Each structure stands twice: as C-alpha cells, then as structure tokens.
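Running co-folding for adenosine-5'-diphosphate.
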Amino acid sequence: MWNKFTLRVKITILTAATLTAMCACLTAISIYNTSIFYDPVLFMTGNRQPIGIIGIEHSGVPYNIGGDENIEIIDEIFIGSRNTFITLSITSSALIILAGTALSYIIAGSTLKPLKNLAEKIEEIDENNLNEQIETTSNGDEVARLAKSFNKMLEKLGQAFENKKLFAINAAHELKTPLTTMSAVIDVLYMDEKPNTQDCMEVIDEVKENIKQLRILVQDLLTFNYELDDDLCEEIQLDLLFEKIIEDLSDSINEKNISVSINGNMTLTGEKNLLERAFANIVQNAVKYNKTGGTINVLIHDNAIIVEDSGIGLPEESIPQIFDPFYCVDRSRSRKLGGVGLGLSIAKQILDKHGMGIAVSSEQGKGTKFIVNSH
Ligand code: ADP
C-alpha cells in the first residue's frame, strides 16, 4: 500500500505524522503545566479533588479562604478558564497540523517538480535521440546532479550505440568483399561459353580462398559475443602455449629469418582455445610487422606476459585506437597481409573476459611491446 503512494504523498503523510506527534506532545505538556498552576489554587479554595489531566495527588489539610459561595465562584472561574485553555490548545494544535500538512503538500510538490520534469524527459528518450541532452540547472541540488549524471550516461550509451553501428557497417563491408570477388569470378566463368578445366579450377581455387576468409571473419565476429564457459576452463602452462604458437607460425618466422625467445613461465586458468587465439594474434602481428632478420622476445614473469618485437613500430597517434575493431594503421597493407583490423580487438576481448588487461608501447621504426597483465 505504502509503496503505491507518490513521493509527494509520502512526504506529506510523514510530515503530518511528525507534526501530529509534536503538537500532541506540546499540547499535553502545556495542559500538564497549567494543572501545576491551577491545582494548588483549587486546593486552597477547599476543593480536595483537584482536576488534573495527569491527576496530581495533593496531600494536606484543606484550607478555606472565604465563604462557601466565594469558593464555588472561584472554583468555577478557574475550572472554566482551564477548560477553555485546554479546548483552545487542542483546536489550535489541530489547525497547525492541518496548515502544516497542506503547506508540506505544496512545498513537496514544488520541490519535486524538477524531478517530475526530469522523469518526463527521460521517458521521451529512445535509441533515435540518444544524442540529446537533458536540460540542467546551474544550481548544485540533487536534481541537477541527477540530470548531469543522466547526461553522462546518455553520452556513454550514445557512444556505445555508435560503436555498435560502426561495427555492424564494418563487418558488413568486410563480409561483402569476398562475396563480391566470388560473384565476379563466377560471372567471368559463365561468360566463357566453353571454359576449360584450368579455368574452372582457377575459379574453384578463388572461391575456396574467399570461403576460407569468410569463415575466419565469421568466427572472429562470433568471438565478440562469446561468453566464457566455466566448464571449458583449465590450467594452462604459458611457456608450452607460446611454444605451440611459435611452432604454428614457424613458416612465416623462418621466411623472415626472425629469431624468437621465450623466457619464464606461469600458469593461467581459462579457456585454452581462446587464450591461444589471443596470444597467437599478438605474436602473429609481431611476425607480420617485423623486419627480415628481426627478433621476438616473449617474457613471462611477475603476472605479466610481454611480447616484444623489433618491427616497424606504431605511429604515436595510432596507439589509442589500436584495440578498436577494424582499425588498421594502413588498410591496404593489412589486407595484403591477410588482416582486417580485428586481431588485436579480439585479443583484448578475450583477455578482458579472463580478467586480464593489455597495454602497448611502441616506437616507430624500432619495435612494439605488448604487455598483458594477469593480475
Ligand atoms: P590486422 O588484422 O590489420 O593486423 P590488428 O587488430 O591485429 O589488425 O592490428 C591493428 C593494427 O595495428 C594493424 O593494422 C597494424 O598496423 C598495427 N599493429 C598491430 N600489431 C603490430 C606490431 N606488433 N607492430 C606494428 N604494428 C602493429
């Protein structure tokens, strides 16, 4: 029942209850105080049973100050004025309670009005007007603070929404590229009235290559929404994991004559396939963007995993965006090397899900260092 009331009504009820309790106490105290004044007088006039709201007992011998008639008149005057006082006290208390309740209803209404306005404006917000901000006043009251916090949240939501939109556009674009290529080579084959086996094989190879790219891309996209499965988590020896990654990349490593070292070891708990993917992406980049005859050093110690290469390095302005999905320093170069700018963002996602952080430091022309903290 109580929860169904509006905040305004609740404040009014609480104020009325407080006022009633305070007025009742004050009235009772003042009536009691009058009895302290009146009772001795009544007692002196011979009335042995002084009237007291609280009922004070007096003891002693009755003392008559005049004749019986005078006593009765004095009694009447005192009792009458005392009763009037009690009536007046109770009536004025009731009036004060009524006036206070009405006033608190009005004040609560005007105080809560900005909150009501804020609620109405919040209700108007949907995904189409996330960029709109709620009006805030310059005063520092709670409502202004609430409006400012809400605006900040709107900003973050708007940004997240924009990122999702951009992600979808980029994903669609990347999916479109191999599809367009496949469609084009098949069209060319159709135009040839009598294609020979060689032509057909070339088209099949091209289609196979593009399907492979699509598969990788779809797999990458799925990883973004993947939730960790506790049942698949296990203890992983990182030195063995890195040895396997290097082994898998040995062709490219040998081709560029890169020397690799792995030092230290650590046990991690997580989904092996995912963690292998995250670290493989980092090492693969260290190979892809390395120079011929370069080096890659993997250092595992003090809860940190460092992958350092002697490659081309990163321009300073690219560093803050390096983990953004589909970000490439040089798109055509990445494409030639078989990347679309998802490798590092996937690595970051996976590490995030395992409660790990990743940071990068780099110097253009000298090399890049990725530091993963396992906490
Ligand atoms: P890509 O698929 O293009 O490699 P990534 O997300 O893995 O995408 O990397 C994003 C960009 O960061 C790449 O385009 C590349 O320019 C740059 N990058 C990543 N790792 C390195 C590295 N070790 N050295 C130099 N540049 C790197």
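Result summary
The CA atoms of residues 136 and 145 lie 8 Å apart.
The longest strand covers residues 295-301.
Job closed.
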